[in-house]
Amino acid sequence: MSALTREDLETWDQNDPLAQMRAHFRIPANIIYLDGNSLGAMPRNTPERVTKAVEEEWGEDLIRSWNKHGWIDLPQRCGAKIAGLIGADAGEVVVADSTSVNLFKLLAAALRMRSERKVILSDKGNFPTDLYVAQGLIDLLDKGHELRLVEPDEVVEALDDSVALVMLTQTDYRSGRLHNMSALTEQAHQAGALMLWDLAHSAGAFPVDLRGADADFAVGCGYKYLNGGPGAPAFLFVAERLQDQVRPPLSGWMGHEAPFQFDRDYRPAHGISRNLCGTPAVLSMTALDAGLDIMHQAGMNAIREKSVRMTELFIELVETHCAGFGFELYGPRDPEMRGSQVSFRHEQGYPIMAALIDRGVIGDFRAPDILRFGFTPLYLRFGDIWDAVQVLRDIMTDKSWDQPKFHKRLAVT
Ligand SMILES: *Cc1c(COP(=O)(O)O)cnc(C)c1O
Question: 122 and 130 in contact (C-beta within 8 Å)?
């Protein structure tokens, strides 16, 4: 048994500098939410912000709101707020579309900047949509490009002068393992390649330093650690030094130099805005904006510090209180190498997770056998982690996970 007691963790919570942040979120009673890495919890003032945008801005001010309420530059304003969380300058990030679509735009732009090279290099563990988008783009271009996939720790060896772009997700979605952003970016550049980072499970989870790493491109999600709501718009980053070299493949009017001149010919806007395509999703972006305002109150360093304590605590408690039940840590033991999530493998992972969710402990399952738990320091307490592990121990002890209803696979896991 771990020497820790629940009382110890209550003391940790009392001394937690982020403790008061939980009040900014709506967390349903009797729920321990360990899935903020997939869909962040709802900030309490999001309904009010969205209602205002609907009732006052849309309802009353109608089309005047594009100017009066600044709808037209929401993508840049939200982008600037995200920039502060990921080590970018305000003019280097814009909010638009989905992560998948933003990947398409930046991959296409990158391949054009290195047109003599034909390889996109990524790792086999990358998130499927990233690989699918690369495959689709290669097919569309029909110029003999290739997606080269290697093991995550073999990226550097796979670099050569055929690589146009290295595309990696910093935080592995299954194991939480971190790639070394600055080292890999430097190696990619030494090989003459461009570097794109997917920050889906990084932005808002821990401090990211895109400028410090000299990254070229990045994309990331609004609905995970940024608490922007289901299907929230995503963001993209282009280093300032490259912005005017980008030739947008989705050359819509919102990325035009002067959208309201209604010129016949496309001329890209200067700076990051050329990466926009169509009209921004104002209501969704309003919800994202509410989430971003909370992140800024907390500060990324404090979030990281608490996140590391939480993932360390969870591993310790599972390995002591649930010893002998067949759970195997899947991912790094060194917290420096880990994002804000912890995964365990278990051959009965699916029904065990279903039973946990039935008891109000919400994590998720990733095929083939991974139980994944996300840790969001803004609204989780150390005591919650204790309680979650006790529920896990209960359902393993009384085998209540092994009921037919928990074996039935749902469409979304
Ligand atoms: C969640 C996630 C996505 C999601 O992409 P969408 O276009 O929002 O569906 C993309 N990449 C990674 C690495 C992710 O974890």
Answer: yes
223 is catalytic: yes
Tokens of 109: 């732009």
**What's the one-letter identity of residue 356?**
L
Single out the catalytic residue among 16, 198, 289, 384.
198
Number of H-type helices and E-type strands within the chain: 13, 15
Burial class (CB in 10 A: 0-12, 13-18, 19+), 5: exposed
How far apart, in whole angstroms, are the C-alpha atoms of residue 218 and residue 267?
23
Ligand 1 centre distance from Cα of residue 225 (Å): 12
Q: Which amino acid residue places its CA nearest to atom 4 of ligand 1?
A: 99
Question: If you average pLDDT over residues 38-42, what whole number do you get?
Answer: 98
Tens of pLDDT, residues 258-303: 999 999 999 999 999 999 999 999 999 999 999 999 998 999 999 9
- What pLDDT does residue 198 have? 98
The CA distance from 106 to 102, in Å, is 6
Question: Quick one: pLDDT at residue 1?
Answer: 59
**Cα-based distances in Å from 392 to 29, 39, 111, 324, 406:** 18, 22, 47, 13, 14
224 carries an active-site annotation: yes
- Quote the tokens at residue 269: 């806007």
Q: Which helix (H) or strand (E) holds 383?
A: helix 382-397
Question: Can you tell me the distance from the alpha carbon of 249 to that of 244, in angstroms, rounded to the nearest whole number?
Answer: 14
Query: Does 49 qualify as catalytic in the annotation?
Result: no
Strand pairing partners for 177? 338
Q: Are 220 and 235 in contact (CB under 8 A)?
A: yes
